[in-house]
Amino acid sequence: MIKINFLGIILYKLFLILMILKIAKKRYYHIDEIFSYGLANQQAHLSFEEGKYESSIKLFNNYLTVNKNSRFNYTRVYKNQAKHIHPPFYYFLFHSICSFFLENLAYDMLEV
């Protein structure tokens, strides 16, 4: 006979609700989070040519977010990870999640 631990289930659900509320109120990012977004979503390397200027906000968004042309494009994710110490599976998964939230950071969609 399976014994159901109701207290454990209640505590688990309470913890899950508190965790979601905490993430929804997030306003700032740690450097590791920014690198994760960049390694998962960066679609082109930055190049600086004399006489050409691009908005820093546009460059930053291109580094962190997925646009229509780069949805589920795992080639760049693999290239970003080719010389990196961490295996690429996490970044493939992270890029997949970000591909559903075009031009937005994935958990910014939780803001109320």
Structural features:
mainly alpha; single chain
Describe this structure as you would to a colleague.
It is a single chain. The chain is mainly alpha-helical and 112 residues long. The protein has one domain. The protein has helices at 6-24, 31-41, 56-64, 74-81, 89-98. Helix 2 packs across helix 5 (89-98).
Offer a concise description of the structure.
With 112 residues, the chain is mostly helical. The protein is built from five helices and no strands. It has one domain.
Mean pLDDT: 77
Form type: elongated
Structural class: mainly alpha
Query: H/E order of the elements?
Result: HHHHH
Topology:
Layout: H1 6-24, H2 31-41, H3 56-64, H4 74-81, H5 89-98
Helix pairs in contact: 2-5
